[in-house]
Write a structure and sequence with these properties.
The chain is α/β, with parallel strands linked by helices. The chain contains six helices and eleven strands. The protein folds into two domains: about 170 residues, Vaccinia Virus protein VP39 (Rossmann fold, 3-Layer(aba) Sandwich), CATH 3.40.50; about 55 residues, N-terminal domain of TfIIb (Single Sheet). The structure holds S-adenosylmethionine. GO terms for molecular function: methyltransferase activity.
Length: about 240
Amino acid sequence: MVDAYAAAAQYYDLLHAEQSAARAHAMLAAAEVRHGILDLGAGTGSVFATLAAEIPDVPIVAVEPSVGMRTALYARLAADPALRARTTVLPETAERYASAEFADLALCLGTSPAFPPPYRPDIWERVRTALVPGGLFLLDEPQLTEPVAQEPRELGRVAVGTHTVVGSVRGEPAGQRQWWEYRYTVLDAEGEVLSEEETEFYTWPVSPDELRTELADAGFVVKDDIAYEGGTLIQALR
Ligand SMILES: C[S@@+](CC[C@H](N)C(=O)[O-])C[C@H]1O[C@@H](n2cnc3c(N)ncnc32)[C@H](O)[C@@H]1O
């Protein structure tokens, strides 16, 4: 299987640390965790690791299909033995994930647009099954309701020693799907390009209301959104 996140993984925390911290703090204000956390598409683990530092010592299940992302995730766990002891990593997609109830917080951040529409209802049901009664499911509000041309834009730039890592993204409609290209450029101290890598993948645009309806159909009670600097979270209660 092609790992669409392989190129992104090495730079992910460098470019997204601020957004991950903002999301985690918005979640901490909304959720009281006493049983466990399920993170679908956990990436490098940056969000759940921030949460874990602030909550009781509950088990965490991180579902992450990308080898590249898991490499960064396992490196994070290797550097934090206490987090390693409580985190189980499942190298699979959300479509294949199933569990009995154990969690009172489930997360799906930056990931739900990757789920093909026919699979989404089943995934929501599985999340619901993994939650204890009263458990909370938090997802990013989708930003793209239909495929749209996206001009190239910079995601961020970060100094690493004498070099600078620059991330950028562009997109195009591709039928019902959205095509994305993420580009990572490393510049030397003089601003000359040292390396350039791209990765491409597709997502399925969905409107926030459609997503809320799907969650309600799966048995969740959809509550008021949580707005934070940089985005909005949909909250669905089991
Ligand atoms: C944009 S990253 C977000 C990572 C992390 N949730 C965060 O907010 O930092 C999307 C993640 O979703 C994962 N992903 C893609 N398709 C998936 C699927 N079908 N099931 C579970 N995870 C998936 C990717 O491997 C990637 O790690």
